[in-house]
Amino acid sequence: MAYIGQEEKKQLAPAIKKVLAKYNTKGTIAIKHHSTLVVNISASEIDLCEVYYQMKLNDRYHTQRENIEKVDHFDLNRYYFADKAKKLGFKKAGNFIDELVTAMKGSRWFDDSNAMTDYFHTAYYLDINVGKYNKPFKHIKKASKTNSDVNIDIKPGITLNEKLNGIELKFNSKPSEEIRTKLKELQFRWHSKKAIWYAKQSPERIELANQLFN
């Protein structure tokens, strides 16, 4: 039977707090129903809500992406969040969750469950919550060095979305296959409703954008 007590939580806390501090993240540790270790993330320099939003936008099972809205709290699914984040280019977010889950497991954790036969046998359950319904997640923003790093002017057709730390490109006509390939190689994605290509800001992406609009 899954069980975790206050003493074990106390033993796991230093490693968990170390991971939170490494990624400039604020959170608390709790136990629910004597069977679940919970980490509640209240703020972080990693915009976890934005990562979750991008996951939904890129979920092939969502047929009406224009209706997807960004949330300010959610229950993080530890089984796939890290892998999906990395595939979408959010490597730091993926590494953070991987390291957090490892710290939450410690050395005693095991899982011999078999969902196919409804057999559940684990040391204890793990929950990660990002924000709460009555206390939204806060993104801790840091000064962006993007523009000074690349030392170039921003050309017309390029928009830097400072709120989301993003870069948006709007072409007058459909770009060539060669250009679309270059955009995809740097993780740009197409937003059909806004008719823009978008991605997180980085020196490489801004440099490519300026080359395309030169």
How is this structure best described in words?
The protein has helices at residues 6-22, 48-57, 81-87, 91-105, 146-150, 177-185, 203-212; strands spanning 25-32, 36-44, 74-76, 125-130, 138-139, 158-161, 166-169, 189-191, 196-200. By secondary structure, it is of the alpha+beta class. The chain folds into 2 domains: 6-139, no CATH class; 146-212. The strands form 2 sheets. Strands 1, 2, 3, 4 and 5 form a 5-stranded mixed β-sheet that branches. Strands 6-7-9-8 form a 4-stranded antiparallel β-sheet, covered by helices on one side. Helix 1 packs antiparallel against helix 4 and helix 3 runs antiparallel to helix 4 (91-105). The N and C termini lie far apart (64 Å). Residues 144-154 have low confidence and may be disordered.
- Terminal Cα separation, in Å? 64 Å
Q: What is the number of E strands?
A: 9
List low-pLDDT spans.
144-154
Decide which structural class fits the backbone. alpha+beta
Major sheet attributes: 5 strands, mixed
Q: What is the chain-wise order of helices and strands? A: HEEHEHHEEHEEHEEH
Strand content: 15-25%
**Domains, number:** 2
Rg, Cα atoms, Å: 20 Å
Mean of residue pLDDT values? 87
Tally the helices: what do you get?
A: 7
| Helical percentage | 25-40%
Overall shape: it is elongated
